[in-house]
Amino acid sequence: MFDTNRRRVLQGAGAMSGLALAGCTGEAPSAEEPTNETEPQPQQTEPTLDVDRVAAEPTDIPDPIDRDEPAEVDVTLRPEEVTAEVEDGVTFTYMTYNGQVPGPFIRVRQGDTLNVTFENPEGNDLPHNVDFHACYGPGGGAEATMTSPGETAHLKFEAQYPGAFIYHCAVPNMDMHISAGMFGMILVEPKEGLPEVDQELYIGQHELYTNKETGAEGHHKFDMESMAAEEPTYVVMNGEAYAMTPDGYGHAAEVETGQTARVFMVTGGPNLTSSFHPIGNVWSDIWAEGALSSDPERNVQTKPVAPGSCAVATMDFPVPGAVKLVDHALSRVARKGCMATVNATGEERPELFDPEPQ
Ligand SMILES: [Cu+2]
């Protein structure tokens, strides 16, 4: 599907703007310009912050669907190019859907029709689009939504099959755009709905490839070479290093012991598979690939979530304490920013877990 569409997307991009094609050779907006040392160069100014936070709020998920009939659902996606912090003192110019990474959580029911408005803001530098994996149709809608800055496109499709699916930018430099943050999840609930849980969480993992060392202060520019080599500077959950931990914005969620939580996980990549694991817990049920038509696997420790795929998992919290959600390729956790925590509070249960047995 990709290959047959790619040429046409390339042609479309070329017709609308040379920027995307220029980017193919590495002349992306943040790439280094050659300098002429005999002439004075203009003062290089570092981009200023556009937003305080690019990390999607993990609990910002539409409510479960309470309908027996199909509906038409309006969705507006705006590709927004914003400079924000990856961690304290480190800035990066992200490409996002609606200013957050991952993009807005879209929730529909099998059989619903989506009316998508795709608004590429005037102030952007690049063309963008969206490919929904929940969509039967060329490029998942990528060609229909291909827009240059200042253009708006519309797409209508029926979500015919249930599951949790990624959506992502699919311009010619799609790896760069996804790595800069352009991915999110669309959940197509089965007609019968999902089992009830107490909390739902939205987590997206992806890699940032920059021209500086991990943690080096200042503005990091996008780096094509390290992306081609698949050697990321950061591997993050929800766009920023350790955003959803007590060192960042706080726990991804607070639960009480005895409650259940459902984690919606999407791996944007563009290159690395997440070995998704809850430290001090287990995936009680997990629908690999987000394939909700299948039966879940039970009590799974670590589940690969490939780039361009999702997982839907439930967790139980019989005892209190923080659970760390990680990619079990642990150098990404220890050195590159990849962790989110969920904190369970409640009565100690020494008969189940006793850290200081007498
Ligand atoms: Cu894009």
Give a description of the structure.
The protein has helices at 2-16, 18-24, 174-179, 224-228, 331-335; strands spanning 72-77, 79-87, 90-97, 106-109, 113-119, 131-132, 152-158, 163-168, 183-189, 199-208, 218-220, 234-237, 253-256, 260-269, 274-279, 283-288, 297-300, 303-305, 309-316, 321-327, 339-345. The protein is mainly beta and 358 residues long. It has 2 domains: 2-28 and 50-189, Immunoglobulin-like (Sandwich), CATH 2.60.40; 199-345, Cupredoxins -  blue copper proteins (Immunoglobulin-like), CATH 2.60.40. Strand 16 and strand 17 form a beta hairpin. The N and C termini lie far apart (62 Å). The model is unreliable at 1-37 (pLDDT under 50). Bound molecules: copper (II) ion.
List the helices and strands and how they pair.
Blueprint: H1 2-16, H2 18-24, E1 72-77, E2 79-87, E3 90-97, E4 106-109, E5 113-119, E6 131-132, E7 152-158, E8 163-168, H3 174-179, E9 183-189, E10 199-208, E11 218-220, H4 224-228, E12 234-237, E13 253-256, E14 260-269, E15 274-279, E16 283-288, E17 297-300, E18 303-305, E19 309-316, E20 321-327, H5 331-335, E21 339-345
Parallel strand pairs: 1-5, 3-11, 4-9, 10-14, 13-21
Antiparallel strand pairs: 2-3, 5-7, 6-8, 8-9, 10-12, 14-19, 15-18, 15-20, 16-17, 16-19, 20-21
